Fold:
Amino acid sequence: MKTRLVLPLLTLVLAGVLFSGCASTAMYAKAPGLARLGGGDAGTEAKHNAVRADRLLIWKAGLELEVWNVSNAVAQATTLAQAQGGFVEQTSGGDEASARLRLRVPATTLKAAVGALEELGTVTYRHLSSEDVTEQYVDIDARLKNKLVLRDRLQQLLDKATGVKDVLAIETELNRVQADMDSMTARIKALKGQVDLATIEVSFTRKVILGPLGYVCKGLWWCVEKLFVIRD
Structure:
């Protein structure tokens, strides 16, 4: 008899939490501070700016520079990142011809860090982009809270269960829920880290030093080019 009662209760608990999860996610989606940009009532400019300030953005920048000394540039970039409160996440190359660094700096200092890096050489490529992960974060956070409620309810059922079959069924479900919670917690932590710390991919290439004939050929090519195109 107890087995017949506990298993239906387990099914009701899962269904109830699933329903509350859908409702919770919907409530998050309707929260004023996390509304979609450009969606619904346009409102005032001040309100629009407030919504933008609440967005969770992952910032990434890319730089390619020509420098006279690659080793010095790498050392200076490392010092700059540390001065901004960041660090060097990855280094590749590192010889006298070229090197590539992945820097992580606080998102609030990204602009200053990029500006300082540009002073190390001649910029040949520059890229800046952002990814809005607000809705992804809100969705995971809502599902995590619902999983926590489900875990507590399952624990209550486990405390009341006496039959071996009931205990095994509830423990199996508890383990699955806990695994889901651990995965969601790790994902939230990763998103926070990416939002708080921007990524800068910077490449250094040693400048080419032309010889006498190199300068002559370069001058001739410039003259030939101007015969066809004066200005783009």
